[in-house]
Design goal:
53% helix, 99 residues, mainly alpha
């Protein structure tokens, strides 16, 4: 059975930014701290994946609201659609950036 009709899941917590790697480079252009640089890249990838999943959940909320409200979805789903539009228009879908 489809999960489309399950109650929507949401996260109302606050996510803190992760520490950024040092920007200094050596004479050959390589990172001074390669481990920190790779950790930052991995964390950025994880944060973007989480942001994409949040957008998918918001889209499911919009679909659910449209189906539930029918012809009145223009009035009754404004807040849900506004939240979805804000997410998809944000750079990187609103993913957390390094400090």
């Amino acid at each position: 059975m489809s999960k489309m009709y399950d109650p929507p899941a949401s996260f109302e917590g606050k996510v803190t930014p992760y520490p950024a790697a040092a920007k200094e480079r050596d004479a050959r252009g390589r990172a001074i701290d390669p481990v920190g640089y790779l950790n930052e890249l991995e964390q950025r990838g994880r944060e973007k994946a989480v942001a994409i999943e949040i957008v998918k959940l918001a889209r499911q909320d919009v679909i659910h609201c449209y189906r539930k409200e029918g012809v009145n979805h223009y009035e009754n789903c404004k807040d849900v659609v506004k939240k979805y539009i804000d997410l998809i228009q944000a750079p990187d879908y609103g993913a957390v950036k390094p400090e």
